[in-house]
UniProtKB/TrEMBL annotation:
This is Undecaprenyl-diphosphatase. It is found in: Cell membrane. GO terms for cellular component: plasma membrane. The lineage of its organism: Bacteria, Pseudomonadati, Pseudomonadota, Gammaproteobacteria, Alteromonadales. Belongs to the UppP family. It holds the Pfam family BacA.
Length: 271
């Protein structure tokens, strides 16, 4: 991989992992328009590790409090709001894990085309817009109950379809369930920790088993850049989300989806 490819792909991954705009729709453009080769599994692991570090460090206080309370609850020392939140994050992770384990090959074989990505980018962008204008937003993150956590987890499983956006659909679900914007985004980001961590672990094991040669310079640079862009993204998104709402992201998604259809129509990228 060239330096420009490393920088562009790492920054795109870092930004789109947490913004509700879909990483798939963005990653398909440079690869197809510029003829870049697939970045490979090792680089995928590196940029995912960078985004994982970003969310862990940004939410380090929350993570420590939730884990501490969760382990105490496991030891029979009672439940707190933090321990319950830990259990709900685990519950919300299960649907995506099951769907990925049972249908990953089918999803990859049938839903990775540009037309699917363009469609899901638009459809779930409109769903985000609907949630933004219709949601009551009268609950915070500690008001989440197990049914709500499971529903948000089911939404996260749908995000295995490229173009949906994991953060986009989980924030949409959270808003529709009455969470305020910051709480919906916060729960979505905390949910990403076991998801990204599990994905990274699976990819690392596969990499080791395949005995794949890697370019360590590219991996280190990709990790650092994805970390910086993801951390900056989380900070700015949570800082301004209540003020600006979801409309800017909805508009952006609609433009991206229509743009992808236009590129397909003119033959610049394949459907």
């Amino acid at each position: 991989m060239g330096l420009i490819e490393i920088i562009v792909l790492a920054v795109i991954q870092g930004l789109t992992e947490f913004l509700p705009i879909s990483s798939s729709g963005h990653l398909i453009l440079p690869s197809q328009l510029l003829g870049w080769e697939d970045q490979g599994q090792a680089f995928d692991i590196a940029v995912h590790v960078g985004t994982l570090f970003a969310v862990l460090i940004y939410f380090r206080k929350d993570v420590v409090e939730i884990l501490s309370a969760w382990f105490k609850s496991c030891a029979g020392k009672g439940h707190t709001a933090e321990s319950k939140l830990g259990w709900y994050i685990i519950l919300a992770t299960i649907p995506a894990g099951l769907v990925a384990g049972l249908a990953k090959d089918f999803i990859e074989a049938n839903t990775r085309g540009a037309a699917v990505i363009a469609t899901t980018t638009i459809v779930f962008g409109l769903a985000l817009w609907y949630a933004d204008i219709k949601a009551k937003e009268n609950k915070n993150i500690f008001d989440i109950k197990w049914k709500a956590a499971l529903l948000i987890g089911l939404a996260q499983a749908v995000a295995l379809i490229p173009g949906t956006s994991r953060s986009g659909i989980t924030i949409t679900a959270g808003l529709l369930l009455g969470l305020d914007k910051k709480s919906a985004a916060r729960f979505s980001f905390l949910m990403s920790i076991p998801v990204i961590g599990g994905l990274g672990l699976v990819m690392i094991i596969k990499l080791i088993l395949d005995n794949t040669a890697v370019d360590w310079n590219a991996l280190i640079l990709g990790t650092v850049l994805s970390f910086v862009s993801a951390y900056t993204c989380i900070f700015l998104f949570l800082k301004f989300i209540e003020r600006m709402g979801m409309l800017p992201f909805v508009i952006y998604r609609l433009i991206l989806g229509v743009g992808l259809f236009a590129l397909i129509g003119f033959g610049y990228i394949s459907a």
